[in-house]
């Protein structure tokens, strides 16, 4: 058995109120389960059990984590010597990175913005914070629609990729007064601060495509001098005393989960990857996985992809025995080493 978590808030009033029906129900469910594995998104459940139920945490067979933020937390525990169970980093598996993070976000960013704002993208100036897989997908989509796209980045390699893909690499302070849309894709905190929000031009749209809702400092906007006006579901106008307003989407939460739909095909790929990771950790012989964080074996990544090829009526070429021997590969894979990077010049879309 395993427990699935999709970014729960364990500090809500229902958790604090020990007499609430919600708390009682959850306690009964927890008591009835033998917790073998955790399938987490964001590390919230993992962190909660680690803090509240340390003895239960030590008995877990394994953890599977699918987000940047959650994986970062796991590596922090591992580095501190506090990770007492093996964990699988699904977020950095190829089938998660390329399909959920890149291809899905390339479509859902436009869907989310269209549903909430009814805007046109041609000629709009957009700054995208972060040029990881999510940022690459967002940049590709907006460039294809005729937007003028700027990128902010802390990683020199990702920054160089952005430059080679034709984007202007800037600091947020340099363009914050002129851009029409600000999109965060970092998984970090306080990427867009109150200072940035104060300097934005009238009607600037602000939204988040990263995992965490901490990227935009929304809490700093809840002050007496600012007026909040709900104009439609998931869309707020935050109005300054001089009449300037910004358009805040989903209160800084994840745009493509709050304001658009996630294609079932991508969900299938991600769910298959997670399921295989759970099965691998559960069935692994004693000693294969230590108390550390691991990537999904390449063979399993390839298997996930092969399961979804029939959707396109796609036919894989098979190596001959001579070709396999020449390349030093098994005919059935894995076909790439773990260090191989599946790069995609996704942004050269006309």
TrEMBL record:
Pfam families (alphabetical): AdoHcyase, AdoHcyase_NAD
**Secretion signal: which residues?**
none
Alphabetic keyword roster: NAD, One-carbon metabolism
NAD as a keyword of this entry, yes or no, is yes
The cofactor(s) it depends on are:
NAD(+)
Q: Identify the PROSITE patterns for this entry.
A: ADOHCYASE_2
Record's keyword annotation contains Cell cycle: no
GO BP annotations, alphabetical order: one-carbon metabolic process
Matching CDD domains: SAHH (cd00401)
Q: Which SUPFAM superfamilies does the annotation name?
A: Formate/glycerate dehydrogenase catalytic domain-like, NAD(P)-binding Rossmann-fold domains
Q: S-adenosyl-L-homocysteine hydrolase NAD binding domain spans which residues?
A: 101-262
Record-stated family: Belongs to the adenosylhomocysteinase family.
Would you tell me the protein name for this molecule?
Adenosylhomocysteinase like 2
Q: What's the source species for this entry?
A: Anolis carolinensis (Green anole)
């Amino acid at each position: 058995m395993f427990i699935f978590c999709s970014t729960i808030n364990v500090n809500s009033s229902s958790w604090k109120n020990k007499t609430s029906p919600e708390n009682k129900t959850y306690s009964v469910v927890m008591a009835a389960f033998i917790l073998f594995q955790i399938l987490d998104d964001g590390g919230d459940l993992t962190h909660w059990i680690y803090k509240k139920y340390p003895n239960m945490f030590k008995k877990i067979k394994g953890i599977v984590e699918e987000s940047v933020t959650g994986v970062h937390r796991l590596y922090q525990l591992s580095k501190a010597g506090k990770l007492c169970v093996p964990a699988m980093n699904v977020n950095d598996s190829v089938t998660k990175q390329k399909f959920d993070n890149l291809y899905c976000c390339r479509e859902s960013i436009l869907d989310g913005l269209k549903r909430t704002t009814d805007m046109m993208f041609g000629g709009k100036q957009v700054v995208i914070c972060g040029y990881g897989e999510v940022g690459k997908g967002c940049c590709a989509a907006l460039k294809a629609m005729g937007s003028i796209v700027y990128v902010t980045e802390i990683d020199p390699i990702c920054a160089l990729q952005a430059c080679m893909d034709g984007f202007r690499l800037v600091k947020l302070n340099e363009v914050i007064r002129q851009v029409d849309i600000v999109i965060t894709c970092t998984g970090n905190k306080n990427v867009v601060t109150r200072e940035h929000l104060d300097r934005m031009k009238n009607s600037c749209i602000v939204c988040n495509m990263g995992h965490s809702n901490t990227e935009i400092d929304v809490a700093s906007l809840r002050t007496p001098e600012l007026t909040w006006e709900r104009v439609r579901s998931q869309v707020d106008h935050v109005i300054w005393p001089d009449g300037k307003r910004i358009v805040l989407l989903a209160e800084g939460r994840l745009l493509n989960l709050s304001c658009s739909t996630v294609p079932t095909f991508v969900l299938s790929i991600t769910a298959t990857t997670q399921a295989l990771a759970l099965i691998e950790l559960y069935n692994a012989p004693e000693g294969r996985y230590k108390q550390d964080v691991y990537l999904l074996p390449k063979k399993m990544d390839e298997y996930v992809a092969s399961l979804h090829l029939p959707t396109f009526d796609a036919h894989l070429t098979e190596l001959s025995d001579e070709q396999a021997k020449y390349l030093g590969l098994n005919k059935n894979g894995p076909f790439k080493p773990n260090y191989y990077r599946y790069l995609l010049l996704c942004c050269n879309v006309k």
